[in-house]
Amino acid sequence: MALGLGTAHADYTLNLMKGVTKVSNDIYDLHMLILWICVFIGVVVFGAMFYSIFHHRKSKGHVAAQFHENTTVEIIWTIIPTLILVAMAIPATKTLLELSDVEKSDMTIQVTGRQWYWDYKYLDNDIHFESHLDEASERVHRTVGADPRSVPNYLLNVDKPLVIPVHKKVRFVLTSTDVIHSWWVPDLGWKKDANPGFINEAWTLVDKPGTYRGQCTELCGRDHGFMPIVVIAMEQADYDAWVKRTSEQQKQKPDLSDQSRQQLMAHGESVYLKNCVGCHQIDGAGVPGLIPALTGSAIATGKWESLDGFLRAGTSKMPKFEKLNGKEFAELMTYVRNNLGNKVGDELQPKQTALPDDDE
Amino acid sequence: MSAAVDEHDHHDDHHDHGPEKGLLRWIITTNHKDIGTLYLLFALTMFFVGGSMAMVIRAELFEPGLQFVDPAFFNSMTTMHALVMVFGAVMPAFVGLANWQIPLMIGAADMALPRMNNMSFWMLVAGVLLLASTLFMEGGAPNGGWTLYPPLVLQPITVGKALPFAVFSVHLLGISSIMGAINIIATIFNMRAPAMKLMDMPLFVWTWLITAFLLIAVMPVFAGAVTMLLTDKFFHTSFFNAAGGGDPVLYEHIFWFFGHPEVYIMILPTFGVASTIIPVFARKPLFGYASMVWATASIAFLSFIVWAHHMFTVGMPIAGELYFMYATMLIAVPTGVKVFNWTATMWKGAMTFETPMLFSIAFVVLFTMGGFTGLMMAIAPADFQYHDTYFIVAHFHYTLVPASVFILMAAGYFWLPKWTGHMYNEKIGQLHFWLSTISVNILFFPQHFLGLAGMPRRIPDYAVQFADWNMISSVGGFIFGASQLLFLYIVIDTIRGGTGEKVSDEVWEDAAKHGLEWTLPSPTPYHTWTTPPTSVPTEHVLDSH
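The joint structure predicted for all components is written out below.
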């Protein structure tokens, strides 16, 4: 669904974008005001300087004056900037106060930054999903010489976008489970850090339906550049329909029926690209000194039961993957054991790997 | 060593003994000029090392997609580029200038603590080498950014064996800086020619005095912060770990309490050099000497109380956001005073445009551009958009490259003839200036556009709408990098004889009116001011003198 929607960022701009909220427009106005103040001061000061550089040169026979202070002038050029700053501080304060007011929101979404994707939880209706970089971008950015222009919205597209209704005050609570991330959609006008162990608040109220794209803006490790954000703002009716559809999808139990080897490998690659590639790399080689290789790994190519247990338990360096369901375990393990330079030769079916509570 | 002492005793009456012979001279030297030279050459070397890392960054960003380096190595490059440039190039270069110039400018025979001077230089070398060694370790150099934010920098999957080496390196660099700062303060307070009152001191001496106090105040804070990283990593403390009752944001506060004064440590001596060079080529006294001193002191004071403007998006209470916004905006006032004063110094002068003056004028203009974007980012709500984008990358590079680095170049052109007795090649100097000034703008100006259009910093790959400006920026970067080889050539050429023209003691027309160093012979003898000067130039100070 996300792939088809919107090309809002197809063309670049030189200036800050106005965005689609009142606050983002206020911020744009602040930006333009301070920019023009700077341009004005620049023209006056550099104008005087360049006049002087042009006229007061020795080669033109100019004789140097010897003055070296003037208290009146010095007081004037201390006071005028101070007044400009006070004038600037007033609208800035107003916007800042407005931005910090998270009261009276219509709904709340919990945003959790993780290495390297976003996790969204709608606190009002139990919708909960992860939002990963789309597979096309994932493949291209990991391949030397691949053409980014062949991918629509390269690096700014996700598998599951965040969906919000227009004209509603949406409150966000932001946190992280690993390192510091920062959630930024320029069209909404702000970014806010997602700190592990702490919760930050922010809000937005979008007026215009559309697709708005952003990125993580706090360095969060090797794939910091590859955890985009896509927000789709919808009319209330469309949003309600989306909520209904998504809740139903979430309640569906995973399909544990047998798959062909080809299907297992293809689905397994998708699971791998979402969950494993950030650390273990696209060829399973890992990173020397930091992350073990999967190619030839005794754990990956040993008994599948122990690999299964390993994935579910995690280690001090690797998170638990209990969030995957039985179907995904079968697909992933088949892929890892028979690709990435491994040739175990077996093939695992969802029914083998599913635990009784996996389908919840 | 004892042989040297004995010899010295035997020749008590012979004051002007020269340096040690051979390589040992440079290792054991306690002469402020030798140590200044060591600092400057080391800084120049590190400028090219850090610059090569920047070239790697710009090469990878030349086009979207994966070209040359893996993202983790890219992150190591941005991290190491910053650390090497800040702690290996810019700071040591200014310490080198201080070593050479402060004793010459205040009529002192040497620095107050010559042996410690030697030790602080070699500790700097040890610190930087320790840091550089991490490049060759398994798991690579630190790649969590020069800010070393936890929990990222503590993560086993992110940083391999490098952390303790980086931490110990910071300790060594900090000790080195503090010793250098103590030396500078002791020298300025105790070794001035009796005729020179505090308000007679050249601005370069004033700005370094204030910078030295900043260094002593904040280097221990940074050392403390990284030590807490070390104990969190290896001794199970939880200063920055929420699961143990700590707070990762605490690190950001401590880091920037060091970090904001740190950026002024790199710019205040820059102001001092500009205030020294511009009057000489405008043939006028510096305008507003006293206000320059007070503006420097005010900026230094403000630098301690604005740190959290680096953290507007971290989730602070509204009162904190408002306070840090107002306090930060205030910095524009004393900084504006400085720019107005430099302009007024040029006004109605009789200017000539030799290379040092060209670099100084470019500094005033381009530093002011960096100041403008700084003012824009002080507006907290607007910073919610600018923060951690290429807009800030453009901002701080404008305040560091065409400001600090340009002024270091200006200082090189300005004082090398004095130090060596040889004139540099003015034509090549001007070529270096124009190539640098044009390319530095091609390099950094488009980054404003990239940031405003939404490109985050510290990413190894980007969406295709950012491609054009990145390519232009990279081209500017390559030209800028290559142009600096001209500077290297000029430095070597000037040391080896330059144009062959014998320079006068003043070097620049009427320079002796502006500073004591120009009353000494060129090249400056190995020992100077063994008897202090009896009068000092006062044309740049208040009429009451």
